[in-house]
Automatic annotation (TrEMBL):
Keyword annotations of the record: Amino-acid biosynthesis, ATP-binding, Cytoplasm, Kinase, Nucleotide-binding, Proline biosynthesis, Transferase
Superkingdom of this protein's organism: Bacteria
Gene name per UniProt: proB
EC primary class: transferase
Name of this chain's protein: Glutamate 5-kinase
Catalysis performed (reactions): L-glutamate + ATP = L-glutamyl 5-phosphate + ADP
Pathway(s) annotated for this protein in UniProt: Amino-acid biosynthesis; L-proline biosynthesis; L-glutamate 5-semialdehyde from L-glutamate: step 1/2
InterPro entries: AceGlu_kinase-like_sf, Asp/Glu/Uridylate_kinase, G5K_ProB, Glu/AcGlu_kinase, Glu_5kinase, Glu_5kinase/COase_Synthase, Glutamate_5-kinase_CS, PUA
Tagged with keyword Nucleotide-binding: yes
Recorded GO MF terms: ATP binding; glutamate 5-kinase activity; RNA binding
């Protein structure tokens, strides 16, 4: 049965760790694998890192640049080279591809979010494999995805994918980094994120010298994808053929089972598509009302406000300790909330001088985290 697959490959798999040069044999095998899957009727999206890493190698740089302007310039050099290699390989295999470069602002505005969805839909119906990357050349820091693990999970959520494959430099998730902790044990199946929390997995490992990811970003991506009902797998990038074996049921890598009742597309957009503009700290009563009783947030439950924001921007809802419990669209600006926080709804008119809505964040615009 044809399925929609999103495959993300990281810089650590696309390049040689010692030199940063492109790992052409891995890329060629990946192209063959995805072309074979496409011929079987599957719809494929490839999320590919590597633009900055390839650009560094092309320019003879010995380490990944830290300055934003230099990184964007290097990405512009590397992205063209990367797409040239992909296009040559997929052309030999008679598989059309398309370049899709995204920034977070493409997912912030609802109309642009839907437009991106429609573009993917048309490309997949045409039998094209979109090759997606963050548009590092123009993305500003506050509107960056930050890593392609997050980007791939948001794309998988957007297109309602069946599978998300995160190809990396380790064969699966371990209880700790196996490269530095000899007795770290492998984890083959994660039924829920709560189960993973109980295992106390150490996720402090960072990405390679040439990449930005790490295991922590992959687990975060799995959380986003499984919330959307997407089965997610972490597996070794050097062996792309494993994708086919995993689909056929072989227990390779670490598999994260999707949530049985995925959240709605709108709530996923609120939770993961938008950039949070501020934080609201809540008292215990408000935390219980929101997290356990499914209530909206009222001004009376807010103890502190952080950040500056306008009405209908996204904010984090936190307990007194700063732990995020939910995200939502706020009905008041930060300036207004500073005046009415901790006060009853029937006092808002007298305080602000005009009639406001009763709820600060309505439950329909609120997502538990």
């Amino acid at each position: 049965m044809p399925q929609t697959l999103v495959v993300k490959i990281g810089t650590s798999s696309l390049t040689q760790p010692e030199t940063g040069q492109m790992a052409l044999s891995t890329i060629a095998t990946l192209a063959e694998t995805l072309s074979d899957l496409r011929r079987q009727g599957h719809r494929i999206i490839l999320v590919s890192s590597g633009a900055v890493g390839v650009g560094c190698a092309r320019l003879g740089l010995t380490e990944r640049p830290k300055a934003i302007a230099l990184k964007q310039a290097v990405a512009a050099v590397g992205q063209g080279r990367l797409m040239r290699v992909y296009d040559d390989l997929f052309t030999i295999l008679q598989q059309p591809i398309a370049q899709v470069l995204l920034t977070r602002s493409d997912l912030v505005q609802r109309s642009r979010y839907l437009n991106v969805y429609n573009t993917f839909k048309e490309l997949l119906e045409l039998g094209v494999i979109p090759v997606v990357n963050e548009n590092d050349t123009v993305a500003v820091e506050e509107l960056k995805f930050g890593d392609n693990d997050t980007l791939s999970a948001l794309v998988a959520s957007l297109v309602k994918a069946d599978w998300l494959f995160l190809l990396t430099d380790v064969d699966r998730l371990y209880s700790a980094d196996p490269r530095s902790v000899p007795d770290a044990y492998p984890i083959a199946l994660v039924n829920s994120m709560e189960e993973l929390n109980k295992l106390q997995v150490q996720t402090s490992t960072q990405g390679s010298q040439w990449g930005t990811g790490g295991m922590v970003t992959k687990i975060s991506a799995a959380r986003i994808a499984t919330t959307a009902g997407v089965r997610t797998v972490i597996t070794q990038g050097r062996f792309p053929r494993n994708i086919e074996k995993i689909i056929q049921g072989e227990p390779i890598g670490t598999r994260f089972e999707p949530q049985p009742e995925p959240t709605s597309a709108r709530k996923r957009w609120i939770a993961y598509g938008l950039v949070r503009a501020g934080k609201l700290y809540l008292d215990e009563g408000a935390v219980v009302a929101i997290s356990q009783a499914g209530k909206s947030l009222l001004a009376a439950g807010i103890t502190r406000i952080e950040g500056e924001f306008e009405t209908q921007e996204a904010v984090e809802l936190c307990d007194r300790s700063g732990n995020e419990i939910a995200r939502g669209l706020v009905n008041y600006s930060s300036e207004e909330l500073q005046k009415i926080r901790g006060r009853r709804s029937n006092e808002i008119l007298a305080i602000l001088g005009y009639e406001g809505v009763e709820t600060v964040v309505h439950r329909d615009n609120l997502v538990l985290m």
